[in-house]
Design brief:
The protein is of the alpha/beta class. The strands form four sheets. An eight-stranded parallel sheet has the order 1-2-3-6-7-8-9-10. It is globular. 39% of the residues lie in helices and 13% in strands. β1, α3 (58-70) and β2 (75-77) form a beta-alpha-beta unit. The relative contact order is 0.12. α6 (172-187) runs parallel beside α7 and α9 (256-284) crosses α10 (316-333). The longest helix has 29 residues, at 256-284. Residues 21-25 have low confidence and may be disordered. The chain has twelve helices and 14 strands.
Length: 419
């Protein structure tokens, strides 16, 4: 076993060495990065507290980037520029590049987009956009020009078109307007021409679901972006659309682990189907361009619709299986997967500490690596690294028996009607 992990470490080292050599000889662009197996991606937020009023410091951000770099992550996705975190992150990466020879990290920079009256006491007006959007876009442009060696993608909006985002969603025309604006800046050489522009949204928003999204502005948007960044979350649909979630009658004699493994493969296939549905819609309107995954993930805990009192979907074992399955599939297909997310963040559901939104990270807020990363701990990848001054250790003290005491058995029987 020790020999096996020594081989893994050698592979990681060789991958880092190879990437460094390529970086010295080839211009690093979004086109080069996306789908490149040497440049894995992840979604990132560095907030440690129950409020975003406490911004992560540059020192904290550097801690996080060192951890992700050790995992061979090379692209991180952010979500907005109206908080200090993104500007500080760019400074942190710049400092690390000067302090640590060979260090590289690139950014998919998010610009948050809202409708009029979003997040206020007034009713959201989904037909008009917030005045704040223009400020957000201009700051994204400033940062992209200030850090062209790091910022390789700008994403206009995050789940900003999907109808269930009732607090803030906008019509596709708003996203189209800003994407066209950024593309025009590239033509005018006011942005790097190699910078790629996209929007990152639910698969349905990209035409892969309900036909109510199939509108001319969406079709024009698909033609304007440099690539499509889609989100897929089978975990949520274990409650909302559980067509894949359960145990088949012929699986009832299997061990609990084998039952879960079978269900997780179906969850992966559900995500793949959503990805393929977007590709099919894109091609149906005569467009052929890259499609990558801007978000997918699986929470490790929940006291809500996905926990022990409902779909029994959330625990560290299932989260680890989904992580591995999606990483393997994306790499085989040459697809970038911005996995959601690197670290737990407790501000997302500050009123409910056990809410699923707080538990999507690969690391928890105790500086512990969840089960998906235990093997990385065994291989010594995190040796010498800390988060918040604490060394990286395993959840459950590395005791798999204790972990399995928390794994939720899947109770639902799944009936699949065969043709």
């Amino acid at each position: 076993m020790k020999k096996f992990w020594l081989i893994i470490l050698i592979i990681i080292f060789w991958g880092n060495h190879k990437a460094m050599a390529q970086n010295n000889t080839k211009q690093i662009t979004a086109e080069y990065l996306l789908g490149n197996p040497d440049y894995p991606a992840i979604c990132y937020g560095g907030y440690r507290h129950k409020t975003r009023d406490v911004e992560p410091t540059i020192a904290e951000l550097k801690e996080d980037m060192r951890i992700l770099w050790a995992m061979n992550i090379r692209i991180v996705r952010t979500y907005n520029v109206h908080h200090l975190e993104t500007a500080r992150l760019l400074k942190a990466i710049t400092e690390l590049k000067s302090e640590q020879p060979g260090f590289e990290m690139y950014l998919m920079l998010g610009a948050w987009i809202d409708c009029q009256n979003a997040w206020t006491n007034q009713a959201p007006n989904h037909e008009l956009e917030s005045d704040r959007n223009a400020i957000e876009i201009q700051e994204a442009v400033r940062l992209a020009n200030l850090y062209p060696d790091i910022v390789k993608i700008i994403a206009v909006g995050n789940e900003a078109m999907v109808k269930w985002a009732t607090s803030y969603y906008v019509q596709p025309g708003v996203i189209l307007k800003w994407v066209r604006y950024l593309q025009q800046l590239k033509k005018q050489q006011k942005l790097p021409q190699s910078l790629w522009i996209t929007s990152s949204d639910n698969f349905a928003s990209w035409g892969g679901g309900d036909k109510l999204y199939h509108v001319p502005d969406l079709n024009d948007l698909i033609k304007e972006v440099d690539y499509i960044s889609l989100h897929t979350y089978p975990m949520h649909d274990t409650h909302y659309h559980p067509v894949f979630w359960g145990i088949l009658p012929e699986e009832k004699s299997l061990t609990e682990r084998s039952k879960i493994d079978a269900a997780m493969i179906r969850a992966r296939d559900y995500a793949i189907n959503q990805y393929n549905s977007v590709v099919a819609y894109m091609q149906s309107i005569g467009v052929q361009k890259p499609v990558h995954i801007g978000e997918t993930g699986w929470a490790s805990n929940s006291n809500e619709l996905y926990g022990k009192d409902d779909s029994q979907a959330t625990d560290e074992y299932k989260a680890a299986r989904y992580y591995t399955l999606m990483r393997e599939w994306a790499q085989e297909r040459g697809i970038s997967c911005f996995y959601f997310e690197a670290f737990d963040e407790s501000w997302k559901d500050s009123q409910n500490p056990m809410g699923s939104e707080n538990h999507f990270g690969l690391f928890n807020l105790k500086s512990e690596a969840k089960y998906a990363l235990w093997k990385w701990c065994d291989a010594g990848v995190f040796n010498g690294l800390t988060r918040d001054g604490k060394k990286i250790t395993k959840t459950f003290n590395g005791d798999e028996k204790l972990l399995w005491e928390q794994v939720l058995p899947i109770q639902r029987t799944l009936q699949i009607i065969k043709p």
